[in-house]
């Protein structure tokens, strides 16, 4: 069986993985989720100095201090950035890396590079006006839905997500990923694509073409951008299949 380390995306904590982790354990796996600095129950640990390097260290320290081996490291959305950094540092502890509705980052890349300039400017205004200059509040769902599918998030799930979400340390978006940004050559590479991302992958976007080729293995899920909330058991089944 596999040891899964589940890393949540922006505004989320380990809580977001609870149902998927439980389903993985029913498959016989070890499933451990972590909260990154400045978020959820660790909100008070964050500050203006919290950045991408902080979150990379959170992941590598979690794996090393728990002496985990043959790890499957799972990144949701934003977590693709710190997981890419951690994957390049974990050496032979890492067996597999899985990106859930996200993709690995190249060295020198940052989260803001994925957004148009006007969106970057608006985020900066939100941070200045409502985040004490270093925290990014979770946008309203009507704004999130413009770039990320809300499929599968009914009113109850949206209310729960809104209630438990915490502002994201903005340094994790502005700092560029330093190398190394590649796991070892023997590490299994897996992509879990939800509805909108499937369209990008199938639409021939040049910068994503490598994800449709070996050594990458792709699994599709018919749900929106937060599958650990909208299709938690189905996501666990996909992760189980990827590890089998």
Automatic annotation (TrEMBL):
List keywords of the entry alphabetically. Hydrolase
From the Swiss-Prot or TrEMBL record, give the protein name: Alpha/beta hydrolase family protein
Return the InterPro entries for the record: AB_hydrolase_1 (IPR000073), AB_hydrolase_fold (IPR029058), Sec-Metab_Biosynth_Hydrolase (IPR052897)
Query: Which GO terms of the molecular function aspect are on file?
Result: hydrolase activity
Coiled coil where? none
Q: Where is the AB hydrolase-1 domain?
A: 4-237
